[in-house]
User: Fold this.
Amino acid sequence: MGEEFGKLFRTFEHTAYRLETRDQYRSPSETDALRQFVDGEEVDLGWFQGWLQMIRKATTHGRRFSRVRVVSVPLTDYSRFGVFCAQFTNAAGEDIRYLSRDQAADLPDYDYWLFDSRKLVRMHFDDSDNFVGGEVIEDHEVIVQHNYWRDAAWHKAVRRDEFATR
Assistant:
């Protein structure tokens, strides 16, 4: 589903929403930047520029990216890195919000993308936190439930800047 999944980010009409539920993700492109962040070094964001450019282009055309990150408190190093990176993502036009895990009991315990409130992709990860693929779900009742979860999470979540100053 790799190429098809990537195409969804370029072809959605109005909204792309993600629920993130994991405290750790592994991605080869982030490894050096995460280490730099944890070690207190200046973080090279070169790996991130393609994503930021895609968001800028989409939002320039009136399309919206948003996500809610469900996080454990205290934050893991990866979650702290995510809060750091979200300042740049938000500046590019994506609206990232945060929700503590204790307030997310009524949400699913897995990640998903919802495109235009009608195309659902459930994300799958291996035991080492690597993304292994997305599953397109076409059942309309399941999609409606995920729209509900999106709205419930959004209602409870706080903006990145508010969360970062707590």
